[in-house]
């Protein structure tokens, strides 16, 4: 394993735990769960990366491409918390929205089919009652027809009575951001999140002609594995610039984002330098704190913040050892970001587990990695 001893020293983590996390990654690659992976770890404001396997085992042209620290992964639903969530929270900080703003006040056509009372906050917490998904890509619709279908979709449940993890809700939030800011979502993300945090690789508009992307699933339309093309069918049909999926990023980009959350909304200074005077922010401390508190305590089996999955939720991937205050999110392609303020720890795990199809799972790998790394923290 490359430089694990040096990594443990840099991170101030126990060598046994860091070695165990890397070994878990290697086992899943050997088992063909994923062709490759990048692990990024942030502890006490120090970051370290471990890349293994292949980003693209069989490219259409050329030789196999190994993973590197800078490999760009299709982050899938991490888009919800890395793009859409901070932009909505910023608009609340700016006094433009509040959590109880009715979606139909901004997007009047959304108010059809009994949805006139749905709020921005309910979309963030997946308690709006919207259905989880919709087949938009196979209808032969234009982009505008697809958006009309999303906005006119009927409710699947009564508002605020259950958590239905809904792509449609975050598609709608993306639309709200564009309407309020008067700019496309990709531009808003770049100007208000990516550039201030120096997430220089992160994008909603990847160039498939460029190298450096991890390949995902085989697709008949391109006669090969998708590489630099968004995997999510809805996002692809809508041009890739969406509130629920479409982000491509490196592990380093995502750890920069995690540092902001560990700093309660601040823009991190250069590593290991003292910050004096005015501290620049992406989010207010109030917004960052409210987002990671439970908003679904009244719904059995759920524990959701604003966007974030909290400890004990049915989608919790934190493992056994992370603290009750941890939070994170996963992506369908095999990605995850988990943050634990109590241990001053953030973990990014990027895999392309859909490379061989959709039947493989990295759920166990996530738990093993999180356990090993949390266990490596010595207070």
Describe this structure in words.
With 379 residues, the chain is α+β, with helices and mostly antiparallel strands. 32% of the residues lie in helices and 14% in strands. It has a 7-stranded antiparallel β-sheet, sandwiched between helices. Strands 4-7 form a two-stranded antiparallel sheet. The radius of gyration is 20 Å and the shape is globular. The two termini are 26 Å apart. 51% of the residues are buried.
Count of DSSP-assigned helices: 12
The general outline is: globular
How far the N terminus sits from the C terminus, by CA atoms, comes to 26 Å
Helix content: 25-40%
Uncertain runs are 272-277
Strand tally, please? 11
The major β-sheet equals: 7 strands, antiparallel
Task: Summarize the helix and strand pattern as letters.
Answer: HHEEEEHHHHHHEEHEHHEEEEH
- Strand share of the residues? 5-15%
Mean of residue pLDDT?
Answer: 94
| Class from helix and strand fractions | alpha+beta
Radius of gyration: 20 Å
Strand order in the largest sheet: 3-2-1-11-10-9-8
Quick recap:
With 379 residues, the chain is α+β, with helices and mostly antiparallel strands. Helix content is 32%, strand content 14%.
How are the elements arranged and paired?
Blueprint: H1 4-11, H2 15-30, E1 36-43, E2 46-56, E3 65-66, E4 73-76, H3 78-93, H4 103-106, H5 120-125, H6 143-151, H7 167-181, H8 185-194, E5 218-219, E6 224-225, H9 233-237, E7 247-249, H10 251-262, H11 285-291, E8 309-310, E9 327-331, E10 335-340, E11 345-351, H12 363-375
Antiparallel strand pairs: 1-2, 1-11, 2-3, 4-7, 5-6, 8-9, 9-10, 10-11
């Amino acid at each position: 394993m490359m430089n694990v001893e040096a990594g443990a020293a840099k991170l101030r983590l126990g060598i046994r735990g860091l070695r165990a996390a890397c070994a878990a990654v290697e086992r899943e690659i050997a088992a063909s769960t994923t062709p490759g992976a990048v692990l990024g770890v942030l502890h006490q404001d120090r970051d370290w990366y471990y890349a293994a396997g292949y980003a693209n085992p069989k490219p259409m042209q050329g030789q196999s491409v190994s993973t590197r620290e800078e490999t760009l992964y299709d982050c899938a639903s991490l888009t919800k918390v890395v793009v859409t969530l901070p932009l909505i929270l910023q608009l609340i900080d700016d006094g433009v929205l509040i959590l109880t703003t009715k979606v139909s006040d901004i997007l009047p056509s959304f108010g059809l089919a009994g949805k006139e009372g749905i709020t921005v906050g309910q979309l963030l917490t997946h308690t709006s009652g919207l259905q989880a998904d919709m087949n938009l890509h196979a209808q032969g619709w234009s982009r505008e027809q697809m958006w009309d279908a999303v906005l006119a979709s009927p409710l699947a449940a009564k508002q605020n009575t259950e958590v239905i993890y809904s792509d449609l809700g975050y598609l709608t939030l993306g639309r709200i951001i564009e309407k309020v800011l008067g700019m496309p979502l990709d531009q808003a993300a770049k100007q208000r999140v990516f550039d201030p945090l120096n997430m220089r690789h992160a994008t909603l508009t990847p160039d498939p002609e460029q190298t450096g992307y991890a390949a995902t699933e085989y697709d008949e339309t391109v006669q090969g594995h998708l590489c630099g093309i968004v995997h999510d069918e809805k996002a692809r049909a809508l041009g890739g610039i969406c509130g629920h999926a479409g982000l491509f990023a490196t592990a380093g980009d995502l750890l920069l984002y995690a540092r902001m959350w560990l700093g309660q909304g601040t823009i991190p200074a250069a590593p290991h330098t003292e910050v004096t005077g005015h501290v620049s922010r992406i989010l207010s401390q109030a917004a960052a704190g409210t987002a990671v508190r439970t908003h679904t305590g009244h719904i059995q089996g759920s524990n959701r913040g604003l966007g974030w999955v909290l400890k004990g939720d049915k989608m919790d991937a934190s493992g056994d050892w992370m603290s009750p205050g941890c939070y994170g999110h996963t992506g369908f392609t095999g990605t995850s970001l988990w943050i634990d303020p109590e241990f001053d720890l953030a973990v990014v795990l990027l895999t392309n587990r859909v490379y061989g199809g959709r039947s493989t799972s990295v759920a166990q790998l996530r738990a093993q990695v999180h356990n090993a790394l949390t266990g490596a923290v010595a207070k």
